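Sequence in, structure out. Go.
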Amino acid sequence: MSDYDKPSKAEDEYFARQELERRKKWAQEQAGKMATEEKERLKQLHYMKCPKCGMDMKEIELHGVKVDQCANCGGIYLDAGELEQLTKHEDAGVIGRVFSMFR
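Output:
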């Protein structure tokens, strides 16, 4: 084998860096995929469970807005935007006063 057939040290380093970058990218993609799968698994595990007591919740209608209520402890939980919908109700009363504290 002549000197012309051997890859130079610079070539070896270049390809080693390329391989390292390819492996890093693959590892990041795998970690992202696992994180997404883990999020979905946790969501399914906790979906419609009361954050206070862990029991099942049911959806009820309150002033035309569907909110979640625990079947065990009676706690009522609001999703994003539901508090604003409740305060738009003409007779917001207590809910309106509570909401005004956070503005």
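Check: The two ends are 79 Å apart (CA to CA). Helices lie at 9-46, 82-88, 93-101.
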